[in-house]
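Quick one, tokens below. Sequence please?
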């Protein structure tokens, strides 16, 4: 750990010295400062700094510098959020502020991703397709309804304008990369075209990845075998300045050989057989924006989408084949109306949404062909929302701007399945945020919100076989079966959260054009009726002279989802960034605690205190960057069982980027790096789950426009 601290200090010290020395030689170089804009935190694009809460927008430049293999690589740059599930891409899931699973909403260009499984991942998209990742931390049901107790992870895919400069009408980008930790090879190509009048454009991408076993920091080789083909096709048409019509298709195809439960450091074996896993997902979207230049009352978006996710698993050593298919159809309409009220400005954002999830589960070894725990079911959601953004200049004679951001959403939802009765409910989700900027460089903010998460059809209607165990009370050790049983009495998970914070945003601090931004907040959430899986096994199955062992509910051998936990979660998040023409540094800190309000036990997806720093120096007018990243975590002791505790860790990465902005090599980019340079054995997800070891990375790309 000492060496890693010294490396971090050296990088930061060199950056400061470079600022002083190089700035005098490069006064003619201008640093373009572009505010990161959040689209999803308010449905009304604003600067992320001005949002009265915490949202991180990871832009394409940062994504490229990370040179990610999976979405998990990007999340180290986000405080209060992480990717659970372990090193394999097939099992990675998001965690935000202690909540995961159905408590985190995932969007691809605004399209809901409703595929949820006990062990499979959720990010069926390649990082090469992304222009930005937004992570809105904290409840957002007031805008998005069910599924956003912890927050929203929104992926924005590349546009034609991201690859074409002014005056260019066609172009391409090709690239390739390699990383050693899993022998992953990547090749990708993107083509783009737009008309001379900028009325029509189209962009297409194809990316291929091939990877093998993962070398862990523990020295163990984790079996894995992945082949991924992902693609994007997007077109936009602007018949005039008032209208834009767009359509897109995102596809992800993955073939792998790994355990039925690929999470953690699991190895295939009895009870968790290796499977040939085939992932086939498609997201189709169409959108219309109408924003007439002569009207402040209309800026409307109509979006429709269809997402089809299918995961099929064929056991390597048997003839068993199981599958899960989830299809989501959705449509949303929203509008923004702006009013000038003299010393105040009001923006109303309002609209409605409908979406439907349908699931089919199959198992070729059951008598009816249905898969245990994956019911054939559907869920329908209807919602309407309104949000106001009132900015008041010089409130009550005080300097600056006071902004109110109240909102509320009403939802009605219904679930149906052939295996049980229909269930329905409704919810109202209010939220109010307030911020005060006495000067443009300082913000004070607070927010309060209520949110909910409707029980999923998997939780309500879970049925059929869960697992089999031997009856140790029987001389023959005959197998008995634990069955899922439905629970139509489940009620929604609910939360109340309040948050307070402050931030500073300073320009021209040390050099002309530099910028420092810091934002800090404290939050507290009371989450009630958390849903958990209750597993009951008769004590007699283990040979004790208690209830007799047997199959099914009659013997108490069953599993069902129940509302069991009332949680209290609270934490602190800090995010900071400094950028100049010669150096940059960004970092974050987060801590979270969670207890069961009834028992006092720890609860939620908790983590140790974590620190992250990414800093570097720019050379040759910004064409070359040398940088390093350091991730630190304290010892993790927020556990109910001592064996679940984890040691502290310090992990360092180094990287170099060469990207000429002029001359004959303009458009070429070379990335070199080493992740986990000290080959540290560390654990993020759970005790005993080691992360990847030392990883050498190289990538080369070439972009050309005409």
């Amino acid at each position: 750990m000492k060496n890693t601290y010294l490396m971090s200090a050296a990088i930061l010290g060199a950056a400061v010295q470079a600022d002083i020395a190089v700035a005098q030689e490069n006064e003619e170089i201008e640093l373009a400062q572009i505010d990161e804009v959040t689209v999803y935190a308010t449905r009304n694009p604003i600067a992320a700094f001005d949002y009265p809460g915490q949202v991180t927008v990871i832009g394409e430049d940062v994504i490229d510098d990370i040179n990610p293999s999976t979405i998990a690589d990007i999340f180290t740059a986000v405080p209060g959020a992480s990717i659970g599930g372990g090193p394999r891409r097939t099992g990675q899931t998001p965690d935000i502020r202690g909540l995961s699973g159905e408590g985190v909403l995932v969007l691809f260009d605004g399209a809901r991703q409703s595929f949820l499984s006990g062990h499979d991942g959720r990010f069926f998209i390649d990082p090469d397709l992304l222009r930005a990742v937004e992570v809105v931390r904290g409840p957002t049901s007031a805008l998005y309804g069910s599924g956003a107790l912890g927050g929203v992870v929104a992926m924005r895919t590349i546009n034609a304008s991201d690859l074409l400069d002014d005056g260019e009408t066609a172009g391409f980008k090709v690239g390739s990369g390699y990383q050693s930790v899993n022998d992953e090879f990547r090749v990708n190509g993107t083509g783009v075209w737009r008309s001379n009048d900028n009325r029509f454009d189209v962009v297409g991408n194809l990316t291929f990845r091939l990877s093998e076993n993962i070398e862990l920091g523990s020295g163990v080789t984790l079996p894995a075998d992945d082949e991924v083909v992902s693609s994007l096709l997007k077109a936009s048409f602007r018949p005039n300045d008032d209208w834009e019509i767009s359509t897109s298709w995102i596809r992800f195809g993955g073939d792998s050989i790994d355990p039925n439960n690929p999470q953690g450091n699991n190895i295939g074996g009895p009870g968790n057989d290796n499977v040939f896993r085939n992932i086939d997902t498609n997201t189709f979207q169409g959108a219309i924006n109408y924003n007439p230049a002569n009207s402040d009352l209309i800026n409307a978006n109509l979006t429709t989408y269809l997402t089809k996710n299918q995961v099929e698993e064929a056991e390597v050593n048997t003839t068993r084949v199981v599958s899960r298919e989830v299809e989501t159809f959705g449509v949303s309409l929203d509008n923004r109306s702006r009013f000038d009220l003299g010393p105040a400005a009001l923006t109303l954002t309002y609209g409605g949404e409908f979406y439907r999830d349908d699931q089919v589960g199959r198992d070729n070894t059951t008598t009816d062909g249905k898969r245990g725990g994956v019911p054939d079911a559907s869920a329908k959601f209807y919602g309407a929302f309104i949000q106001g953004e009132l900015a008041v200049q010089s409130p009550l004679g005080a300097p600056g701007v006071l902004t109110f951001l109240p909102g509320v959403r009403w939802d009605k939802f219904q679930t149906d399945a052939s295996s049980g009765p229909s269930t329905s409910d409704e919810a109202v989700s209010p939220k109010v945020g307030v911020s005060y900027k006495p000067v443009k460089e300082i913000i004070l903010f607070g927010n309060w919100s209520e949110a909910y998460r409707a029980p999923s059809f998997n939780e309500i209607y879970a049925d059929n076989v869960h697992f089999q165990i031997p009856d140790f009370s029987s001389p023959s050790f005959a197998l008995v079966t634990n069955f899922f049983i439905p629970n139509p009495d489940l009620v929604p998970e609910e939360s109340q959260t309040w948050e307070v914070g402050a931030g500073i945003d300073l320009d021209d601090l040390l050099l002309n054009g530099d910028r420092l931004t810091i934002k800090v907040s404290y939050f507290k959430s009371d989450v009630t009726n958390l849903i958990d899986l209750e597993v009951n096994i008769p004590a007699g199955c283990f040979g004790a002279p208690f209830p007799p062992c047997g199959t099914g509910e009659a013997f108490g051998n069953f599993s069902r989802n129940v509302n069991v936990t009332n949680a209290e979660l609270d934490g602190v998040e800090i995010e900071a960034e400094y950028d100049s023409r010669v150096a940059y540094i960004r970092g974050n800190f987060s801590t979270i605690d969670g207890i069961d309000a009834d028992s006092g036990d720890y609860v939620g997806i908790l983590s140790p205190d974590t620190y992250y720093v990414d800093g570097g120096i720019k050379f040759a007018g910004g064409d070359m960057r040398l940088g390093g990243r350091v991730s630190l975590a304290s010892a993790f002791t927020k556990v109910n069982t001592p064996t679940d505790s984890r040691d502290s860790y310090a992990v360092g990465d180094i990287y170099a980027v060469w990207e000429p902005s002029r001359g004959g090599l303009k458009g070429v980019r070379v990335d070199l790096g080493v992740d986990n340079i000290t080959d540290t054995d560390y654990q993020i997800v759970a005790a005993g789950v080691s992360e990847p070891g030392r990883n050498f990375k190289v990538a080369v790309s070439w972009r050309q426009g005409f």
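The first helix runs from residue 2 to 23. The chain has four helices and 36 strands.
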